[in-house]
Design goal:
223 residues; alpha+beta; Arc Repressor Mutant, subunit A; Elongation Factor Tu (Ef-tu), domain 3; 2 domains; 6-stranded antiparallel barrel; 38% helix
């Protein structure tokens, strides 16, 4: 996200726009941002175009509220700041084993991904992913903290006329027993509280996991 857009979202949040629709004016925002009215107006149009704010113009000025997409962007930067300022080294969260979409085995066995997994993770993954659903809002927050750090990048590629997106990998420890890797996929059909895990072995069989079982993931960051 462009820095100036985040600061504009922050200014709107400071006047209450993260939780309510607020009356404000372009001059007021310009003062908060220390920019000209024209610049403030242009930034509001950009945010509106991206769907990060909802804005209504009336005689008193305008009514603005930050939309869920905008809130997500604020939380993304908040997570980056929390990691940087607290020097957090271990991200821990819990997830409930759940059925996947059945696509993991296909993607993992694509040579474009498989080669990079071998080179960057040091092993050939078992052909399938373990899907987990995060248990609580606190666990989702821990995942956001993880996303705010730089993982091992698995580059996207094109094959057979089809484009496959990039993947960020984060080596993790499952139940303090097995080494694995969390996959944060650039293009995914999953909800934000669903993540996929790969390992050299079949995690379900090795850890005797069934749908509904809770597992704990511990991931070190900034090593």
């Amino acid at each position: 996200m462009t820095n100036y857009l985040w600061f504009t979202l922050l200014a709107i949040a400071r006047i209450g726009g993260a939780s309510n629709s607020v009356h404000t004016s372009t001059p007021r925002l310009a003062t908060l941002l220390e920019v000209t009215q024209q610049t403030a107006s242009r930034r509001l149009r950009e945010l509106e175009k991206k769907g990060w704010i909802r804005r209504t113009i009336n005689r008193q000025g305008q009514v603005i509220r930050i939309e869920p997409k905008g809130i997500a962007k604020l939380k993304e930067v908040y997570s980056m700041l929390e990691i940087a300022l607290t020097e957090k080294r271990l991200v821990t969260f819990r997830g409930r084993v759940t059925k996947g979409l059945g696509e993991g085995a296909y993607y993992i066995q694509l040579e474009g991904y498989k080669r990079q997994f071998r080179e960057k993770l040091g092993y050939k993954p078992f052909p399938g992913t373990l899907n987990i659903q995060l248990v609580s809002d606190a666990d989702v927050h821990e995942l956001q903290l993880l996303k705010a750090t730089i993982g091992i990048e698995i580059h996207g590629f094109v094959t057979g006329g089809r484009t496959f997106g990039s993947v960020a990998c984060y080596p993790t420890r499952v139940n303090d027993q097995v080494d694995a890797a969390i996959l944060l996929i650039q293009r995914t059909h999953h909800k934000v509280n669903i993540i996929e895990i790969i390992a050299e072995i079949n995690l379900r069989e090795t850890l005797k996991l069934e749908d509904g079982d809770i597992i704990v993931l511990k991931t070190r960051v900034h090593e």
